[in-house]
């Protein structure tokens, strides 16, 4: 997450949507008073500042707008440009699974991914519950439950969708590629009909809202 009082924006980083690449691009032009929350180089250097903040929720790279209540009020959030990245859910789940398999920290999702094949991971009730409970819009709701997203940027159409954000910033962003997982680029190769249908079910809200399709 990045909170920029000077430039009047909040970037919310939804997991496995390409957010690290966008965060690095934004940080390249960071203001001195920007609040950088995450594990990118500049964010690590500013962790002391984050540690002095008081927030309702957890302050980490994937904080929601509700989490930062206390740092900013809902009214202050409403006066800022708020944006996030979204991604084709079928593609995102492949990326998520392969990323989890490469991790070494203790977490139930890591254990599942390392114990199960991809189809089994998708079918597990824990995966269904955790992913289904966190549609993209849930990250963009403030503590009152009001959705505050100015822009949802589709990873697959980033140059087009980024234009209004760049207009607000007053400069172009050079977005590279960070944290890519080791996997085949064509996500469809990882699915059979049953596993594709599972993702369609627990990501139905995101698929319908952003017009995603498996094809």
Label this structure with key terms:
41% helix
Radius of gyration: 17 Å
pLDDT < 50 stretches: none
Number of strands: 5
The strand order across the widest sheet is 3-1-2-4-5
In terms of structural class, how would the helical and strand content be classed? alpha/beta
* SS strand fraction: 5-15%
Topology, pairings included?
Blueprint: E1 2-4, E2 9-12, H1 19-27, E3 35-36, H2 41-45, H3 47-51, H4 74-78, E4 81-86, H5 89-101, H6 108-115, H7 118-123, H8 125-132, E5 151-154, H9 158-169, H10 193-202, H11 204-210
Parallel strand pairs: 2-4, 4-5
Antiparallel strand pairs: 1-2, 1-3
Helix pairs in contact: 5-6, 8-10
Task: Summarize the structure in words.
With 215 residues, the chain is α/β, with parallel strands linked by helices. It has 11 helices and 5 strands; from the N terminus they run E-E-H-E-H-H-H-E-H-H-H-H-E-H-H-H. A 5-stranded mixed β-sheet has the order 3-1-2-4-5. A hairpin with a 4-residue loop joins strand 1 and strand 2. Helix 5 crosses helix 6 and helix 8 packs parallel to helix 10. It is globular, with a radius of gyration of 17 Å. The two termini are 31 Å apart.
């Amino acid at each position: 997450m990045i909170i920029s009082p000077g430039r009047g924006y909040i970037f919310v980083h939804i997991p496995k949507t390409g957010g690290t690449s966008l965060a690095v691009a934004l940080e390249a032009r960071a203001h001195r008073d920007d609040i950088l929350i995450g594990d990118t180089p500049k964010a690590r250097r500013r962790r002391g500042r984050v540690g002095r903040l008081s927030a309702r929720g957890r302050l980490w790279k994937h904080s929601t707008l509700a989490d930062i209540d206390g740092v900013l009020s809902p009214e202050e959030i409403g006066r800022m440009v708020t944006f996030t990245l979204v991604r084709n859910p079928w593609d995102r789940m492949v990326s998520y699974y392969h990323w989890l398999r490469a991790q070494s920290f203790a977490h139930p999702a890591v254990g599942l991914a390392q114990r199960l094949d991809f189809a089994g991971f998708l079918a597990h009730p824990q995966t269904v519950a955790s992913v289904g409970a966190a549609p993209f819009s849930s990250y963009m709701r403030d503590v009152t439950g009001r959705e505050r997203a100015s822009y949802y940027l589709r990873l697959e159409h980033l140059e087009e969708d980024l234009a209004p954000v760049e207009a607000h910033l007053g400069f172009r962003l050079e977005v590279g590629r960070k944290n890519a997982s080791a996997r085949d680029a064509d996500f469809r190769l990882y699915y059979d009909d049953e596993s594709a249908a599972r993702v369609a079910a627990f990501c139905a809200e995101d698929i319908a809202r952003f017009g995603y399709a498996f094809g």
